Known about the structure:
The structure is a single chain. By secondary structure, the protein is mainly α. It has one domain (2-114): Glutathione S-transferase Yfyf (Class Pi), Chain A, domain 2, CATH 1.20.1050.10. Helix content is 69%, strand content 0%. It has 7 helices and no strands. Helix 1 runs antiparallel to helix 2 (30-49) and helix 1 (2-23) runs parallel beside helix 3 (63-81). The longest helix is centred in the N-terminal third of the chain and has 22 residues, at 2-23. The radius of gyration is 14 Å and the shape is globular.
Amino acid sequence: xxxxxxxxxxxxxxxxxxxxxxxxxxxxxxxxxxxxxxxxxxxxxxxxxxxxxxxxxxxxxxxxxxxxxxxxxxxxxxxxxxxxxxxxxxxxxxxxxxxxxxxxxxxxxxxxxxxxxxxxxxxxx
Length: 125
């Protein structure tokens, strides 16, 4: 599960989010569109996994959750920063598109100590 997240979600996120966050690109960019397709496929798979348990592999958090969470949270961050672009790419509103992943994010963010992991520059923007 960890390897799948690294292979699909992380690579898809790089193609999707790199151009948006760092180069001012939008959904007209071919890499962004291809990345969005990859990420949507992976998020649909993760949604299916979350039908069976509150975390990706079990009733409790595992390494898979630790590796996948930052990738999912980056997409949510993009919906916060670039809502129009992310809506056109069908990621926003995230909680409507991916309700199980949204609930999973809330569960992880509610864990003790999570606030210490939140990037400081996200708090100010």
